[in-house]
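call fold(seq) -> tokens
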Amino acid sequence: NPSTFTPQPPSSVPANADDSYYCSLLGQGAVHAAMAGYTGFSIGLVNNHTVLLPIPALVAKSPRTMNKHGRTWERVLAVTHQPDVHTAGSSKPAKATPAPASSSWFGFGAKK
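ret:
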């Protein structure tokens, strides 16, 4: 249940062994899922288990929004060296294709 997920606040003190272990768990889970071909997820701990959390469920009730034509998004694209799919080579916006149902134990996500 993604509603029980509580993100960890940024730390203002040097990382300790617990922080290192937590980051290792999240990193290994993310790499494992990505290498398995899953997309559209974030990693988190729910009830002390490392789980894949679908991004649409994470942002569905978020009070924050970002203008996809605004300065902040342009900076994200520039820093990450990603193309702007809203203006790259076509006057039509890119269409998202629905992800097929997954039969994996994760219960969601699409393999590419």
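The helical segments are 17-35, 55-59, 71-80.
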